[in-house]
Amino acid sequence: MPVSPIQSKLPDVGTTIFTVMSQLALEQGAVNLGQGFPDFMMSDELTSLVNEAMKKGYNQYVHMNGLLLLRERLAEKAEKLYKTKISPDTQITITPGGTYAIYTALTTVLRPGDEVIVFEPAYDSYIPNIEVNGATPVRISLQFPDYSIPWEEVRAKVNSKTRMIMINTPHNPTGAVLREQDMEELRKIVADTNILILSDEVYEHLIYDEIPHQSILRYPDLLERSFVCFSFGKTYHCTGWKLGYCISSPELMKEFRKVHQFNCFCCDTPKQVGIAEYIQNEEAYLSLGGFLQKKRDYFRELMKATPFQCIPSHGSYFECYSYGHFSDEADKDLAIRLTKEYGIAMIPVSAFYKNGDDNKVLRFCFAKKEETLEKAVAKLVHLK
Ligand code: PMP
Ligand code: GLN
Q: Among 51, 76, 328, 379, which is least packed, fewest CB within 10 Å?
């Protein structure tokens, strides 16, 4: 007897826009400023450290919470950067990437009926990760065009079912960053409630214009109720390594680890050994903002020769550009047309809204070699 098809847990979900646009770019031989990944080499030193770790025999399972030395050094780093004491033993878990850390945190706490406040445009895994756990996303649009959080609306949407608020700074896809006043608003809203926070800080070091990163780690009272997610892929230009970590309170982390241990159990050992050594090189992460800011500025300058209008980014790999002043075309159609006809791929920002809201904005990844950026923009200059 044929098996009956399963009832989809995610009936509205198709293939992620990142795969769709990267695949199209590949087929069309287009310059890919879509999916967020660098096209330049990562550090030779870090690659060698991982190779050495493999040769030295660090190839078996590591502790399920992650290599202790790496967790210790992450705690030292957090104390240096954010003046918060974190226990490597009870508050940090190494994960196979930031996305996994987010999924695990949501799965740890969410139950059917729970509501999660999520800001749109939202990184594309958030809403499916909420829904697959039977919870309900309560979507709030960031204010166009600066993509700031409308805190009054957040206050209005909080109720007894609100289990979590998700924040992301620096923000994908817009490059918006949260300021101290935002953290104060958040603090006021969650005070005297049981609301938890998920803070996606994978772009922690990719922040520009001398703006300090508003990590939850700066706020011990918020950390008590937060899962804070990071990605080594972003910090060390190795998105394909899929390695990250989560920091939380000891109580929340205890539950997180119950889910984690029966999902992936532990992550890639040699990479953890290599990073534990390389993380001592503070310059490698402290110089990242300056390095990528130069790329953003270079790209922004090049884009002045096109009809697109810049929506300034202050962080992340991305800058958004609007085109509503010269075209009515749907952003998805324009992104596909530019890839096919002009040979440049990018991401339509409507893909980051559950209902496909279209403000006529495209997201470009500037974490590329200068020659790649030049090649890409040269194609856009001819846009009609
Ligand atoms: N959150 C955001 C906002 C991202 O842009 C990314 C990038 N992929 C991630 C999480 C996930 O990072 P990772 O590749 O380490 O899973
Ligand atoms: N974070 C990357 C982006 O936003 C891609 C991640 C992915 O492909 N899942 O483009």
A: 328
Partners of 200 in the β-ladder: 168, 229
Q: Coil, strand, or helix at residue 335?
A: helix
CA of 121 to the centre of ligand 1 (A): 15
Please report which residue ranges of 236-311 form alpha helices under DSSP H: 250-261, 269-278, 282-286, 288-303
Q: Where are the domains of the chain?
A: 17-42+286-380, 60-280
Q: Residue 285 and residue 287: Cα distance in Å, rounded?
A: 5
CB neighbours of residue 265 within 10 Å = 11
CATH number (3.30.930.20, 3.40.50.300, 3.90.1150.10, 1.20.950.20) of 17-42+286-380 reads 3.90.1150.10
- Closest among 313, 128, 130, 125 to 209, alpha carbons compared: 313
Give pLDDT, residue 4.
81
The closest residue, in CA terms, to atom 8 on ligand 2 is 18
pLDDT per residue as tens digits for the range 129-162: 999 999 999 999 999 999 999 999 999 999 999 9
Q: Kindly report the pTM of this predicted structure.
A: 0.97
Atom 3, ligand 1: residue with shortest CA distance: 172
Write the DSSP string, 93-145. Answer: EEESSHHHHHHHHHHHH--TT-EEEEEES--TTHHHHHHTTT-EEEEEEPBTT
Instruction: Determine if ligand 1 sits within 6 Å of the CB of residue 244.
Output: yes
Higher pLDDT, 116 or 20: 116
> CA-to-CA distance for 196 and 226, rounded, in angstroms?
6
The predicted-structure confidence for 245-269, as pLDDT tens digits, reads as follows 999 999 999 999 999 999 999 999 9
The answer, yes or no, to whether any atom of ligand 1 lies below 6 A from the CB of 175, is: no
200 lines ligand 1 (CB under 6 A): yes
